[in-house]
């Protein structure tokens, strides 16, 4: 069995994992990122890079290079609800460097960031390495068990960070308690071609008891039909022709293209979840991103919250990792920093789902409720929604590599804890000698 030693083992090569790996390597820490797939290419992943994330890329000196990649810029978000055109958010007035959302394939973003991370001596990305379990040293997590094409291996680490998504193997292995929030919907994702005369809509269309998301990807739409949770088999039983008819009914301008959907293999079900861990950490283990809090696709904020988690974690963890002084107190600070924005965002998403659930109660044409029209007329409303979606609650900024946000008293506690840990380790060695 192969074994190796690293400072921080990051499990999962998604936005949170690659960003954290980049930032820790930038701070001079040896970090190993494990990704179970052979590349980053997966369709129907979060592709919305919000102004808050673009600000972070600017702070890292990477923004100009990132924006050279193919992308579309969204300055506002609209939807058609029945016969009512509703502009939900406007990003043109948000206090950010980039006043737009960049629509970019997630694999392009991850390839770009990981290639830049490889310029740091301490960064190692291991593709086709699947973390299967945790290594324990008493009550502490001491590393990761993994599978690779060459066989099993063990990776010892001062800290393991789980970034392996909503079905996290690491949090299951750690037996961390998850708080679930009921979600009444799932999403069926698929592609359909786009024509130049099609409406410039991102949220899409709501009518006839259905909701269709349409994300402009240049020559095609990344489309998602929102369905009642657990009704996929019923939809399949009705047949692919009925599915095409549903799409044409909601968005009549797609009628001449629904024939592109030939079989169910072209559709991918996203089982929507909203949950979060009650405790994000154990000694030697931290969960961030979807591994700590699964988000709904509402607002497209998941990738950006994951990156915010990574920035906050790197700001707090960099100095303790360099000093070999990672304590539970340090890991708790990461949760304290990021739990509030997570709670607020999930609260908004849960209530958005409740409003959307009312759409399913009618099969005929719907009329936009008067409450929506009053809300639409409120002054400054589009800017406020644009700020919540584009910037978010408590946006993070990249700290200087030599600093971390830890009060002096807590630094003393860290040093004291490290000294006690060294004494205990020495005592164990003497006892076994």
Low-confidence stretches: none
Question: Quick one: CATH superfamily of the largest domain?
Answer: FAD/NAD(P)-binding domain
Largest sheet: 8 strands, mixed
Shape: elongated
CA radius of gyration is 23 Å
The CATH topology of the largest domain = FAD/NAD(P)-binding domain
Strand content: 25-35%
CATH class of the largest domain: Alpha Beta
Q: Briefly note the structural class of the backbone.
A: alpha+beta
What does this structure look like?
With 433 residues, the chain is α+β, with helices and mostly antiparallel strands. It contains twelve helices and 21 strands. Strands 1, 2, 8, 9, 10, 11, 19 and 20 form an eight-stranded mixed beta sheet that branches. The longest helix is centred in the last third of the chain and has 30 residues. The chain starts with a strand and ends with a helix. The relative contact order is 0.17.
Short synopsis of the structure:
By secondary structure, the chain is of the alpha+beta class.
Any descriptors?
433 residues; alpha+beta; FAD/NAD(P)-binding domain; 2 domains; eight-stranded mixed sheet; seven-stranded mixed sheet; 12 helices; 36% helix; 27% strand
SSE inventory with pairings:
Blueprint lengths: L1 E10 L3 H12 L4 E5 L12 E2 L1 H9 L3 H4 L5 E3 L1 E6 L2 E7 L10 E3 L2 H12 L5 E5 L2 E8 L2 E9 L2 E12 L6 H6 L3 E4 L3 E9 L10 E4 L2 E7 L3 E9 L3 H7 L1 H11 L17 E3 L3 E4 L3 E2 L2 E3 L5 E2 L7 H22 L4 H30 L12 H8 L3 H10 L17 H25 L1
Parallel strand pairs: 1-2, 1-11, 2-8, 5-14, 11-20
Antiparallel strand pairs: 3-7, 4-7, 5-6, 9-10, 10-11, 12-18, 13-16, 13-17, 14-15, 15-16, 18-21, 19-20
Helix pairs in contact: 1-4, 1-8, 8-9
């Amino acid at each position: 069995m192969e074994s190796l030693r690293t400072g921080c083992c990051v499990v999962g090569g998604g936005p949170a994992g690659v960003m954290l790996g980049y930032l820790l390597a930038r701070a001079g820490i040896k970090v190993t990122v494990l990704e179970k797939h052979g590349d980053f290419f997966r369709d129907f992943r979060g592709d919305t890079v919000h102004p808050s994330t673009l600000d972070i890329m600017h702070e890292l000196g990477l923004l100009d290079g990132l924006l050279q990649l193919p992308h579309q810029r969204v300055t506002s978000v609209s939807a058609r609800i029945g016969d009512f055109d509703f502009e939900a958010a406007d990003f043109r007035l948000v206090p950010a460097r980039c006043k737009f959302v960049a629509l970019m394939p997630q694999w392009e973003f991850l390839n770009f960031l990981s290639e830049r991370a490889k310029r740091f001596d301490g960064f190692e990305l291991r593709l086709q390495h699947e973390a299967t379990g945790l290594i324990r040293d008493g009550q502490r997590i001491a590393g990761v068990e993994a599978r690779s094409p060459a066989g099993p291996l063990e990776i010892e680490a001062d800290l393991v960070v789980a970034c392996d998504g909503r079905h996290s193997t690491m949090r299951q292995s750690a037996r961390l308690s998850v708080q679930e929030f009921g979600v009444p919907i799932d999403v069926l994702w698929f592609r359909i071609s786009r024509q130049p005369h099609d409406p410039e809509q991102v949220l899409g269309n709501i009518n006839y008891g259905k909701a269709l998301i349409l994300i402009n990807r240049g020559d095609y739409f990344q489309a998602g039909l929102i369905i009642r949770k657990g009704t996929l088999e019923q939809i399949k039983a009705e047949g692919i022709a009925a599915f095409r008819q549903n799409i044409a009914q909601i968005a009549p301008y797609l009628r001449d293209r629904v024939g592109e959907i030939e079989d169910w293999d072209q559709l991918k079900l996203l089982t929507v979840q909203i949950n979060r861990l009650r405790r994000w950490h154990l000694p030697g283990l931290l969960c961030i991103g979807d591994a700590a809090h699964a988000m709904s696709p509402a607002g497209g904020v998941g990738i950006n919250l994951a990156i915010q988690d990574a920035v906050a974690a790197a700001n707090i963890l960099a100095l303790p990792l360099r000093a070999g002084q990672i304590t539970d107190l340090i890991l708790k600070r990461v949760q304290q920093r990021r739990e509030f924005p997570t709670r607020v965002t999930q609260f908004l998403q849960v209530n958005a789902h409740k409003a959307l659930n009312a759409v399913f109660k009618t099969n005929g044409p719907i009329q936009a409720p008067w409450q929506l029209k009053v809300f639409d007329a409120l002054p400054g409303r589009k800017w406020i929604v644009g700020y919540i979606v584009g910037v978010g609650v408590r946006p993070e900024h990249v700290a200087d590599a030599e600093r971390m946000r830890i009060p002096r008293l807590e630094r003393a506690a860290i040093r004291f804890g490290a000294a006690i840990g060294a004494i205990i380790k020495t005592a164990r060695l003497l006892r076994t000698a």
